[in-house]
Each structure stands twice: as C-alpha cells, then as structure tokens.
Design a protein that fits this description.
It is built from 14 helices and 17 strands. It is an alpha/beta fold. Strands 7, 8, 9, 10, 11, 12, 13, 14, 15, 16 and 17 form an eleven-stranded mixed β-sheet that branches. It has a six-stranded parallel β-sheet with strand order 3-2-1-4-5-6, sandwiched between helices.
Length: 436
C-alpha cells in the first residue's frame, strides 16, 4: 500500500489557494489524523503564473486537467472551478476511474446532482461536498451522520452571506438596497453580477442539496419557490423593527406526512430569535429533529479559508476511507441509493404562513374596514394593525399582520386590494416565520 495519499487539485482560485495553504501549513496534523501523509501531487488551472501568495513547486503545476484525471497515482481529485461544464465532465471522469472526488460546486449538485450521485454509486467511489453548503459550517456531515437518526421536520436559515450582509447594513443604516449593493460590490462582498446571491438562487441551490440529504428524495430546482431581496425597502425594515421583527432572506424546507415544501424568500423573524442575531456575511442554519429538537449551526458561509477548511475535511475523510478500502461507507446521498424515493412537493399556493402586508392608502373613510372585509372574504384573519398618523393628501402605510393563512387566499386577496381606488401602489407582502 502506498505510503502517501495523493491529491490532484483542479482550480487554483480563491478557495483552491486556501486548500493549498491548509494542506501545506497543517501537513503534520493532517498526517496524524489520517495515518499517512496527504500530498498535493498536481494542480491544474488555466492560469499557473499569477502569484497566489503561497509557494508550490513549478513541476506540480499544469494547465491540463487531464494530467490529473489520467494519472493513476492520484487518489483524490478536488474540483474547484465551479459552473456546470467542464466541471461535471471532470467529476464524472474521476468517479468512473474510482478516484475519490471532493467538490464545492453547489450549482452543479443542485442542477445535476442525480447524475453525479448515481455515477458515484455505480463506481463505488467516494464523493465529498461539505464545502458546497455553508462554507466552513459542517452542515453536510451533520445531515449525513450526526443527525442521521432523526426525522428532520424543518431546515431553515440564512444560506447566503452576500444577501445577509446587504440586509444587515440596510437594517443598521436605514439605507436603500441599491446603495448598499453598489458599495458591497466595490468592497468585494458582492460579485460583479450579484444576481445568484440577491435573487435567492444561491440559497436555493444549497437548500436543494440539504433537502436531498435530509429527506432521501431528489428535489429539482424548479420545485423551489425563489424570491430575492431587491424589493425590500427600508420602510418595511422600519415597521418590522417596530413590531418586533427582523427581515432575513431564508431558505426554508419542511416535511410533514411525507410531503415537503421548499422555498427561499425574504422573511420576518422575531428579533430575539437566534437567526435574527446573525449579521454580515455569516450564515446560520436552524434544524429541528424529532429526537434532537432544535440545533443552530452558525459560521462563515463563504470565503477562502472557511470553505477550504470544509474541502480539506472531505479530503481527510476520503483519505481515511482509501487507506482502509472502505469506499462509500456513508452514501453521498445519506440514504442508501436504492432506498431513496421521490416525495411530493407542496405547491407554493398551498403553503401556510403568517403574512406582513403593507398597503399604501389614501386618506379616505372606511379604508381599514374595506381591506379587512376583503381579507375576511378570503379566509384571512388579522393579528394586528399598525397605521401611522395621516398626512393630508399623501398616501400613508397601513401595516397588517395576519394569522396563519393559505398562500393562495392571500395572493387572491392582494389582487383584489390592489384594485381599490384608495390604494396608491401595489401591496407589499413578506412572509413570517417563528424561529425559536
């Protein structure tokens, strides 16, 4: 048996650089944990000349990923280039060669996970993807091992650091979304094209992966209702705060009676809840299990070193497996492949929630009674109302919090309310969740 475990890294970017630093700086402790040295044997990247701030021998650098994929001496392939192609091709080729694969590619796993998982199962090859969700937060291992004895009734949390950073600053500074986004881009907290983050798509990718592991079912991205934060206004943040709530972009999955719901959207959560206390680029995931009850995992959800930490954790796990020839001891999908089963996903129109509604109304008699009548007609009960002092000739906000209601009825009621002559702009809707 070889005296070392050899690793090939495809993608020498921000996270790849972090992986190299950890493997180099912590080589001794990693060897003690694994039982053999873990050696970075080759690095493939289209750019092998830029200084990354870490020194590696020139002879291990290559611009051709096939130098890694076709090398029979390499045990573990780490894919950190992102995107669908050629990442998927590289991963499938490595798995077919029975190499262990570690990836942080959440978009690929969310969109093409079934193909990748099946390839790992058929090849009886290890697949690690801890870094695909939550950066340095060990959520994947928690779902597949630590909490494997639980039925998880809900997964809920802040799953995108960029959006949370923007909402945090909007809350603290009382400034508009567009202003904060522009600054966040300049400061490097948001990508030049921030759409994946601010439109909720990145969070949806992560939610799909977690649901697959938690419930043993494939979940297509198209089944996840996804709504971003661009329409959140400082006005709504102010009213939310006055009523004891904070606005966060949450990924939410629930499972009851073998029916699951999946959604990503801005959400009012109680200000005293743990989730509401998560600020800046940090992530937090709240899990509820039938045995363990409540758990909150908190930490940096992105960045070079936190994400690299998760990648190296997977490398160590796969290295141990190779030493003891114990491949796929923990299935990549958490459930045994033949035991997974499709579960129905509840349409968004059928979910139940509490709702925050902001109606901009003109100063006319019977405004509240008319709106209340429409809500009542659609089966929606009012929990509380907040209305600021009227200003002659100007629209004023009327804030309504509802009791739990069906989404379909709320949307129908809003359509009717928006046709009223005293409504000056479309009604704002934000869903509410109780996160204890």
């Amino acid at each position: 048996m070889d005296q070392v475990v050899k690793v090939g890294l495809i993608g020498f970017g921000t996270v790849g650089t972090g992986v190299v630093k950890i493997l180099k700086d912590n080589a001794d402790i990693i060897a003690r944990r694994v039982g053999k040295k873990v050696v970075l044997d080759k690095i493939a990247d289209l750019d092998i000349t830029t200084d990354r701030g870490v020194t590696v021998p020139d002879e291990i650098l290559t611009t051709n990923a096939n130098d890694i994929l076709n090398d029979h001496q390499i045990d573990i392939v780490v894919e950190l280039i992102g995107g669908h192609e050629p990442a998927k091709r590289f991963i499938l080729q490595a798995l077919s060669s029975k190499k262990g694969v570690v990836t942080a590619n959440k978009a690929l796993l969310a969109d093409h996970g079934e193909e990748v998982f099946e390839a790992a199962f058929k090849a009886q090859a290890d697949l690690g993807f801890e870094a695909s969700v939550g950066g340095g937060i060990p959520i994947i291992r928690s779902l597949t091992e630590g909490l494997a004895g639980n039925h998880l009734t809900s997964i809920m949390g802040i799953m995108n650091g960029t959006s949370n950073y923007i909402l945090t600053r909007m809350t603290q500074e009382g400034r508009d979304f567009s202003d904060i986004l522009e600054e966040a881009t300049r400061e490097g907290y948001a990508e030049a094209d921030p759409s994946l983050d601010v439109e909720g798509i990145d969070a949806a990718h992560k939610l799909v992966i977690m649901m697959n592991l938690a419930y043993g079912t494939p979940v297509p991205m198209s089944a996840v209702y996804t709504e971003g934060i661009a329409k959140i206004s400082t006005v709504d943040m102010t009213f939310a705060r006055e009523m004891g709530f904070t606005i966060k972009l949450l990924g939410i999955a629930k499972c009851q009676n073998q029916i699951i719901e999946a959604r990503v959207h801005p959400t009012l959560v109680p200000t005293e809840s743990p989730i509401a206390q998560v600020h800046g680029v940090y992530n937090a995931i709240h899990l509820v299990g039938d045995a363990v009850e409540d758990i909150v995992l908190y930490g940096q959800g992105a960045g070079s070193m936190p994400t690299a930490s998760a990648v190296v954790g997977d490398i160590i796990d796969l290295a141990r497996n190779r030493i003891y020839e114990s491949f796929s001891r923990v299935p990549a999908t958490s459930f045994q492949w033949e035991s997974r089963q499709p579960l129905p996903i509840k349409p968004m129109a059928e979910i139940e929630s509490r709702y925050y509604l902001r109606c901009m109304v003109k100063d006319e008699p019977s405004v509240l009674s008319t709106i209340s009548g429409i809500l009542g007609k659609h089966g929606i009960s009012i929990s509380s109302v907040l209305q600021k002092e009227r200003k002659q000739g100007q629209p004023v906000p009327l804030i309504i919090l509802t009791h739990r209601s069906i989404e379909r009825g709320v949307q129908s009621a809003i359509q009717a309310i928006n046709t009223l002559s005293f409504i000056s702009e479309p009604t704002t809707l934000i869903r509410m969740e109780s996160v204890e």
